[in-house]
Amino acid sequence: MSDLRPFERNLPMALLRAREAVMARFRPILRDHGLTEQQWRIIRALEGEDDLDISTLAERTLLLMPSLTRIVTGMEEAELVRRVTDTQDARRRRVRLSRRGQATFRAVAPLSEAAYAEIEAGLPGGQIATLYDLLDALEPESES
Fold first, then answer.
1. CA distances (Å), 98 to each of 42, 95, 138, 142, in order?
2. Domain 9-120, CATH among 1.10.10.10, 3.40.50.150, 3.40.190.10, 3.30.430.20
3. 94 FRET partner, CA 20 to 30 A, in 3, 45, 57, 106?
4. Which residue, among 49, 64, 23, has the nearest Cα to 105 in the 3D structure?
5. Strand order in the sheet with 93-97
6. Are 72 and 51 in contact (CB under 8 A)?
7. 137 near 144, Cβ under 8 Å?
């Protein structure tokens, strides 16, 4: 008999199940707009920013650099993003949303917020804030 906790109480698995339950609300929205989860993460990270360097974008989207570079290239071909030269260092490139990327954000954002409202409605009052706080507490740099 193992000293490990029961498989059903395995935290990584519980977090994966929760992620899948949440993403099940968002995937149809993204699919209807021709987006992958990673592309939407990039659009969300860039929205409201003039542009971001690729390292910052990787950190914000939790995407590995090789994957991010490949995805951004595809998004650039689809005219969702543009790469621009860094004004401080002409050797560096930054990424920004194109007009089409901004329009895509405006089309998807209200649907995304509606999905969030459904998720929150399924939790007893105020527990979404507690859930965010608990998840934040798991991060190494958390102040808690």
1. 12, 9, 35, 34
2. 1.10.10.10
3. 106
4. 49
5. 52-53, 93-97, 81-85
6. no
7. yes
Q: What is the pLDDT of residues 21-67, one digit of tens each?
A: 999 999 999 999 999 999 999 999 999 999 999 999 999 999 999 99
d(CA 12, CA 88): 42
Q: Which of 100, 10, 87, 92 is nearest to 46 (CA)?
A: 100
Return the CA Rg of the chain. 18
Q: Closest Cα to residue 135, out of 10, 18, 45?
A: 18
Instruction: Say what the pTM is.
Output: 0.88
